[in-house]
Design goal:
alpha/beta; Clc chloride channel; CBS-domain; 3 domains; 3-stranded mixed sheet; 55% helix; chloride
């Protein structure tokens, strides 16, 4: 017997794998990353750069560039996300108005911009100017009458259908991943799942264009959720330019967490709320370094959007408001009632929407996405046009509902009966009796509320970009404004009641209906998404009013409690489960008393575990094992008899290693011995060169004993982001538990279908 290492030159050949080769450490589509491995690889990379930086000035400069690359990526993400959000806002404004008319002086102006430039507008008719013409005025020279109304109605529907058809066609042909909100998938990606193409360049381009089209079409959806997806696409693009992020999936996810914060920052003009949203709602792994970088990305994005100034009011959002009246303790009761309404609406919406989406998936309805979008758009446009509160864009509606009624307001909601003897400052108008305009507005709002509740259930989840923040806020704002007007009129007509006597004297400005709209919007958004801290911060950044935090907190907490009483899942978690993504939610509790041995594979009656031995299998044996199974990796043991665990080898890396060895090493043939030890095994003379694969072996795979409680195993999978965990007893391998096994077991324990977990 001779040692194979003594053969002529074979020592160098066998160790060629000690040098890295392409694609090692990458993952296949629809697979989960190994967080511990990614962290370890980044630590090794950092250690190498630090040690090299002491060798020369050039290496020191390279180490500085590496350290600053994270901040550079954040700067680029903020700049691009802010620019795209500004462009989307401007385009939506123009295309929404295009459904009703066109600016003759410059067709690319929206209605508001067109009349800004006019010298012929009066204060009372500030929305009317000769440069802006409705389609009926342009085509048949009539602005009033039945024929003009019917023509405008018809063209409104046609434009809406045109925009929606173009959007769904672009999504279907060029970027199927551009549909939906994107937040459920981003949550899954940030938890360590790979969905190739979901954050690609085509998805970014098509989502940006189609987002403008669908919001302009008047469908009951918002752009805020999809803007998070757009920002994450920007993050993915810029991280691919730096090897520090492109070659490490764990580090890439830190960038994506910060990009999500930038997305919310430009969606709501709320940089701090964006950071908290990323921390509370989206991110799975959020170290302190990512918090700082998220803050910086959100700051740059908000600054960029502010520079573009898409709304022309020097604000980051359309519905910025300022109130001049404090709130009173007695008002907490209606605020809490709005919280209850928000929780009930959230529960109703989630259950109905998931039932409809499941029906779409399991019936023939799902085969006709274009037809579905066209039908829903037609229904929305036909019902929305007659009601002025549903005809306008949802953001404008929320803006009007949030507004306080000042002396300069011309809205129907501000049609109060004024006291001719009133001599007060403009900002402090006392409570007044409601006029006929307020009563008709209440009826229209009630009809709009019912319409929004129903149509949003069918709209969210179609094959177009669709956000949920704005429709949810609209539902809450309409309910809140109606409650606010009710409380205001009650206080005016019954100011001698004991609840009003202490704080609402005749002639005082007691109740602000706009504040109720804001609280209702927060409650409904909280009921649907189950956000709390980030929601309150986003809402107070929207309004700039610190003193209204307590009403917002009361409504947000109440809506969460009420919604949680009917089910713990928010809309995003519900869609994750509907799509079968392998997402281990940190909020879920596992309280069942099962053990690792109950979940591990192989079970009783199943074939034994597929393993590799440390030095007794040939290349052909390994290739056959890979071909006959579809496992992501294989435990390596001393021998099949002893089953003492040595380590774990990933399937993809085995395939790449053998392929590279065959290309670069002449001596490797099918009956070459594969070994994972430091020293090659003793082989007979004239035997082919053995192949050393120790470099791709994980020598410290995570293991638990067979009597470890599953509660602990689930916690380990959540907190360490494991792909798989090996089960041993006294060092002897018994089985394996994968993330998919854990999810199936949790589904089984919750009396759900364990086969609904589709991916690896």
């Amino acid at each position: 017997m001779v040692n194979a290492g003594d053969m002529n030159g074979s020592g160098n050949l066998m160790d060629f794998l000690d040098e890295p080769f392409p694609d090692v450490g990458t993952y296949e589509d629809f697979h989960t990353i190994d967080w511990l491995r990614e962290k370890s690889r980044d630590t090794d990379r950092h250690r190498k750069i630090t040690s090299k930086s002491k060798e020369s000035i050039w290496e020191f400069i390279k180490s500085l560039l590496d350290a600053w690359s994270g901040w550079v990526v954040m700067l680029l993400i903020g700049l691009l996300a802010g620019t795209l959000a500004g462009v989307i806002d401007l385009a939506v404004d123009w295309m929404t108005d295009l459904k009703e008319g066109v600016c003759l002086s410059a067709f690319w102006y929206s209605h508001e911009q067109c009349c800004w430039t006019s010298n012929e507008t009066t204060f009372d008719d500030r929305d009317k100017c000769p440069q802006w013409q409705k389609w009926s005025e342009l085509l048949v020279s009539q602005s009033e009458g039945a024929s003009a109304y019917i023509l405008n109605y018809f063209l409104y529907i046609m434009w809406a259908l045109c925009f929606a058809f173009l959007a769904v066609s672009l999504v279907r042909v060029f970027a199927p991943y551009a549909c939906g909100s994107g937040i459920p998938e981003i949550k899954t990606i940030l938890s360590g799942f790979i969905i190739r193409g979901y954050l690609g360049k085509w998805t970014l381009l098509i989502k940006t264009v189609t987002l403008v089209l669908v919001v302009s079409s008047g469908l009951s959806l918002g752009k805020e959720g999809p803007l998070v997806h757009v920002a994450c696409c920007c993050g993915n693009f810029f991280s691919s330019l730096f090897s520090k992020y492109s070659k490490n999936e764990g580090k890439r996810r830190e960038v994506l967490s910060a990009a999500a914060a930038a997305g919310v920052s430009v969606a709501f003009g709320a940089p701090i709320g964006g950071v908290l949203f990323s921390l509370e709602e989206v991110s799975y792994y959020f170290p302190l370094k990512t918090l700082w970088r998220s803050f910086f990305a959100a700051l740059v994005a908000a600054f960029t959007l502010r520079s573009i100034n898409p709304f022309g009011n020097s604000r980051l959002v359309l519905f910025y408001v300022e109130y001049h009246t404090p709130w009173y303790m007695a008002e907490l009761f209606p605020f809490i009632l709005l919280g209850v309404f928000g929780g009930l609406w959230g529960t109703l919406f989630i259950r109905c929407n998931i039932a409809w989406c499941r029906r779409r998936k399991t019936t023939r309805l799902g085969k006709y996405p274009v037809l579905e979008v066209i039908v829903i758009t037609a229904i929305t446009a036909i019902i929305a046009y007659p009601n002025p509160y549903t005809r306008r864009s949802t953001s404008e509606l929320i803006s009007e509902l949030f507004n306080d009624c000042g002396a300069l307001e011309s809205s129907q909601l501000c049609d109060y009966i004024n006291d001719p003897n009133m001599t007060r400052p403009v900002d402090d108008i006392p409570d007044r009796p409601a006029g006929p305009g307020v009563y008709s507005a209440m009826w229209q709002l009630a009809l709009a509320l019912v319409f929004k509740i129903v149509i949003t259930i069918f709209t969210f989840g179609m094959k177009i970009p669709s956000g949920l923040f704005i429709p949810s806020m609209a539902v809450g704002a309409m309910a809140g404004r109606m409650v606010g007007i009710g409380v205001e009129q009650l206080a005016y007509h019954h100011h001698d009641w004991i609840i009003f006597r202490n704080w609402c004297r005749p002639g005082a400005d007691c109740v602000t209906p706009g504040l109720y709209a804001m609280v209702g919007a927060a409650a409904c958004l909280g009921g649907v998404t189950r956000m709390t801290v980030s929601l309150v911060v986003i809402m107070f950044e929207l309004t700039g009013g610190l003193e209204y935090i307590v009403p917002l907190m009361a409504a947000a907490v109440t809506s969460k409690w009420v919604a949680d009483a009917f089910g713990k899942e928010g809309i995003y978690e519900a869609h994750i489960h509907l799509n079968g993504y392998p997402f281990l939610d940190v909020k879920d509790e596992f309280t069942h008393r099962t053990l690792a041995t109950d979940v591990m594979r192989p079970r009783r009656g199943e074939a034994p575990l597929s393993v590799l031995t440390q030095d007794s299998m040939t290349v052909e044996d390994v290739e056959t094992l890979i071909k006959e199974t579809d496992y992501n990796g294989f435990p390596v043991v001393v021998s099949k008899d002893s089953e003492r665990l040595i380590g774990f080898a990933q399937r993809r890396e085995l395939i790449l290693a053998i392929k590279n060895a065959r290309q670069r090493q002449d001596g490797v043939v099918s009956n070459s011995i594969v070994y994972f030890t430091e020293e090659p095994p003793e082989l007979p003379p004239n035997s082919p060169h053995p192949l050393k694969l120790r470099r791709i072996l994980n020598l410290s795979p995570f293991t638990v004993t067979d009597h470890t409680p599953m509660e602990t195993v689930v916690d380990i999978f959540r907190k360490l982001g494991l792909r798989q965990c090996l089960v041993t007893r006294s060092g002897r391998l018994l089985g394996i538990i994968t993330k998919k096994d854990v999810l199936r077991h949790m589904a089984q324990m919750a009396n759900q279908d364990p086969e609904s977990i589709m991916f690896n």
